[in-house]
Amino acid sequence: MKSQKLADFLSSAAHLLDELGRPDDKAACEVLARAFQAKPDAEAKLVCSHIERAIAPGEHDGRMALLLETLPPLGRFIDAASLSKDLSHVSRALAAHSSGSLDVIVATAITSLLAPPPAKKTKPAASAEALADYEQRLRSALGTEPLFHAVLAEVKKDSTVTPAQASALALAIAGIPVKTKPKAWEAISARHATLVGGRARAKAEGNRTAA
């Protein structure tokens, strides 16, 4: 269930509790509703998890106990099974805080909910110097066995070489545009094989001419 629906329910419950002359219960429901209003399109269970994990030391204000007493009876008047289930998630999240201020816990949960996701760590790419060195060594080893395979194996083993960098090597050495590392290694190896084959044919023809 979306958080907004649970927030709407808590707001309605606050209005009902006000009519019943229970201002403290009303205020507690209004405070709790803020957490679900903060991210209305999120799943209510997600908001509950942030409430449960909130580390919020503060002076016990009694509102936590009020909610834990008030929510279960309210759940018995709900026909929608999904809403009743989410209220049980709320009760469990609140029960994780045996003491502390409800206002502080809700504020902490909201801060956590609205915090931007951690930035993805980008894998460092090979330096321009390293890439130039690889290109020069691969060019020098082309057509030479087994040196070429030793150099290529070293380049392939370097995890900092990105697909884009491997593609650049393939274009520079083999003149073939590719998009992936495997295709790049294939193109460079094919260029090497062409040179090896050409030299073998030239040698064979030379031997026949000499004979």
Uncertain ranges: none
The geometry reads as rod-shaped
Report the average pLDDT across residues: 86
Oligomeric description of these chains: single chain
DSSP E strands, number: 0
Helical fraction equals over 70%
- What's the end-to-end separation, in Å? 88 Å
Estimated share of beta-strand residues: under 5%
Query: Tell me about the biggest sheet?
Result: none
* Tally of individual domains: 2
Radius of gyration: 34 Å
With helices defined by DSSP (H or I, 4 residues minimum), what is the helix count? 10
The ordered string of helix (H) and strand (E) elements is HHHHHHHHHH
Class from secondary-structure proportions = mainly alpha
What key phrases describe this protein's structure?
211 residues; mainly alpha; 72% helix; rod-shaped
Give an overview in words.
This protein is an all-alpha fold and 211 residues long. 72% of the residues lie in helices and 0% in strands. The protein has ten helices and no strands. Helix 2 crosses helix 4 (63-75) and helix 9 packs parallel to helix 10. The longest helix is centred in the C-terminal third of the chain and has 30 residues, at 181-210. The model has no long low-confidence stretch (mean pLDDT 86).
Detail the topology: elements first, then pairings.
Blueprint lengths: L2 H17 L3 H16 L5 H10 L9 H13 L5 H15 L6 H13 L13 H14 L5 H11 L5 H12 L6 H30 L1
Structure at a glance:
With about 210 residues, the chain is mainly α.
